[in-house]
Model the fold of this input.
Amino acid sequence: MADKKLKIVGWGFEGDDISSEEHEMITSRYRERFAGDFEIRKAPTEDAIKVHAPRLEIPSSLAAFATTEKRDRLVHTYGKSVPDYTRIFDGDFTPAPDIVAFARDESDIEAVYEYAAGANVAVIPFGGGSSVCGGVEPEVGGSYNGTISLDLTKLDKILEIDKTSRAARIQGGIRVPAMEEQLKAHGLTMRHFPQSMELATLGGMIATRSGGHYATLYTHIDDFVESLRTVTPVGIMESFRLPGSGAGPSPDRLMIGSEGALGIITEAWMRLQDRPTYRAGGAVLFDDVFKAAEAVRVICQSALFPANVRLLDADEAYNNGFGDGRQSVVILGFENADHPMEPYLERALEIVRDFGGSYDDGSAKSGEGHRAGTAGAWRHAFIRMPYFKTATIEMGIITDTFETSITWERFPKFYEEVMEATRQAALEVTGQPGSVSCRFTHCYPDGPAPYISFQAKGRHGALAEQWLAIKTKALDAVIEHGGTVTHHHAVGREHMPWYARQRPDLFAAALAGAKDRLDPNAILNPGVLLPARS
Amino acid sequence: MADKKLKIVGWGFEGDDISSEEHEMITSRYRERFAGDFEIRKAPTEDAIKVHAPRLEIPSSLAAFATTEKRDRLVHTYGKSVPDYTRIFDGDFTPAPDIVAFARDESDIEAVYEYAAGANVAVIPFGGGSSVCGGVEPEVGGSYNGTISLDLTKLDKILEIDKTSRAARIQGGIRVPAMEEQLKAHGLTMRHFPQSMELATLGGMIATRSGGHYATLYTHIDDFVESLRTVTPVGIMESFRLPGSGAGPSPDRLMIGSEGALGIITEAWMRLQDRPTYRAGGAVLFDDVFKAAEAVRVICQSALFPANVRLLDADEAYNNGFGDGRQSVVILGFENADHPMEPYLERALEIVRDFGGSYDDGSAKSGEGHRAGTAGAWRHAFIRMPYFKTATIEMGIITDTFETSITWERFPKFYEEVMEATRQAALEVTGQPGSVSCRFTHCYPDGPAPYISFQAKGRHGALAEQWLAIKTKALDAVIEHGGTVTHHHAVGREHMPWYARQRPDLFAAALAGAKDRLDPNAILNPGVLLPARS
Done:
């Protein structure tokens, strides 16, 4: 694990590539879907990539853990968004950091802050590097003398486990698989699995308000945070470890979602769970997506708290290998470590029947239903998805997702308007119909979190601009119809224009006031959450 | 309702007094509990109370909704804490506001801000007036020319109901009973019932991170807030109405718990629930309070989500009329609007048996268990409790409660140390043993929220100082052993010394930075959350 190196191009670590079967599956899918020929462009090799010489010299205070080595700078230039991929394919590493520092402890972070404040250098915290919205890109405007990407993945220990209260004190740079493996030995799990889990770090998930795999009850990582330890440029902020509190606005909630603009989360006490042993689940078909949504609404208002209640509209289901392209699917899953889940599933199935859902009695009620069959296939595809992006970019296919949330009573119109805006945009921008489909990743008693996938056949050389044109229309529709710009992908640099429309101006002012006190030289992740100084 | 006037002395509205039976019950309880004679002192009548002449003249901009009438100023001088009662009994209304304004709409609030900023006057938001920690007292230090208490209870409308998403847009000044009555007509409820519910306003509950009656899952009001509209001195802040979001730190979470120091919450979209129709519950006895706590822990880690799982230690149970003073009681209640709760109760009873809990099979499994019998008696006493304070103060009895939370693994030592510190303090301060008992008001998977009640026989003329000496020792122990200074009573002015020890210094700095932007003249509730300017 420790020796694994992040790829310069694509998802995951060097050596973890898609199989030839997967490559054939994904490329043939798009050859069938889109008309015309496909020009295949390959990303440049490391040697072929040119990057500007570092504008900074490593000071002696950082010499023990910082580097200006080309490969490290390339790896720390981008996250995993579409424009990240297109610039990598173009060999454009303009935003590359001048220095990459690998913090070994908090004093290393403090040393970086001290140097950065004195030398007028921007510091970009880098955890999993899996941002799909420009959160880790050292694009900070023209007012800094240079940039440091501060890699936190050496802060990768579980420091303490409290089995009684089911909590652990964990360093911010640990990745999800390493964390879960160690927790498993104690019969515990954080049970928070974003699609980025192979790369994602705990601190990064907290800083970006990550959403886990499970659909109800505990969705965002916010709920698992018991306390935080954050290193800011003016010192360390550490909250009491508490099950609940009413003592003023929550200190943790200011740091959760701060995206590296206020400080770096070096440790957290996280709430854990027992590993589930009881399961029940299955898949239900609906002819009408809005009836399916109604069923999901009622299930989510019943306090049954399914682990999964994932609505896939007909196109989304078909694209993921379920159904015939005319029916929507609702995947139901219940999990618990204490008591059997069949009664919960029975009640949920009664509800879906009320709304016209149909299911195969054998598969829907299998105890392993959500791991096997339809639901199991889904789980596998979910984890592999990020690996496919390189192959699609090679073909000139724009594939992206955006995610939002909306209250139930606005959902039907919201769905129609946002889907239509995205479809229109894909057609206008690329000259042929794109594929636009939707699923619910998370559901609340007051509304769903629709997650929209789109694919369009773009033009090499223009992919980034075509992508931006489609995404602009899509997010304009999201904001116009009252949805959030992001349910769990975070804001980063790419979502800032829409975040600015969603966020109350006075909250921006309050946040700026807080940042002034915590980061008085504005060295932390400039341009994220607040405009970079000009 | 609209004609009811708040009492100057004691809980509730004029005319809502305790019965002679209740008076006899409460006074005889303390005559039995404490040795010696009891001097009965009555509070002064309104006529006998002297209050300083207003230092401010009502400006024309406020003339339509502001007053300097004596009774209004007296009612808006204090909340309901012990030192509030003792000063009222002493006829000491030194902190009385110079003006009381009854805002009819947001523009009235803006007019108050404008006047206050120009005239260097502090503005104290006043909702239910039920603060037990000095949250509404116009004690603002010497740097202001005067104070205005800004009463918000005329903002008392439900503006919109969305039955599909189960949410409503509600004004901040509405009291809980009026709100619930209107929601009931739609089959809905917010299902958030703090002990102060007869007086408490929605905006006040949000500003103080109120805790409801129910013990698990949705405890603090935080979870019910879908969006907020807040009037600050620099303008209006309004968040999108969203079921969930990951777009930066939550704007609402900064205002939730801001205790009137950052703005006034004039409207909120609140998440509602269907009215429960299925119930199951009962009471379980334990010989050992720590075994009882273990049972409660396991129930709270099982995802059964009881509406109530209220542990009363032996003294607390006895003081509330249950048991023989040697056994602890765990009150269990399950409620749901969708499906029967008996299976949930059955599983919880299996768990309590594992820890040696015993119960009467008939009463424990009654479908109305938590409303009838032991649990029903509890509910009634809970609501009446605040009415008894006047009678105890008349007798010179100090009765107070404080509430905290702590993780499970620290609970046994925390309980012993905090209880012992409080007992010792009561003995040292009053010369005879006090009564100190504990219950869990709320329970989380990672820890309980212990709520500690103490009664001590004080000395008229010294009650406030005796109370402070006991509470100081108690809260010192709470903070020293890692608990929160308040789980749901809020900070106010009285908890500031301990809040300052609990709150990270850098969060105080961030909060000060936010306040600078939202309340640049520092007119809002000075001394709450942040020190008043000197």
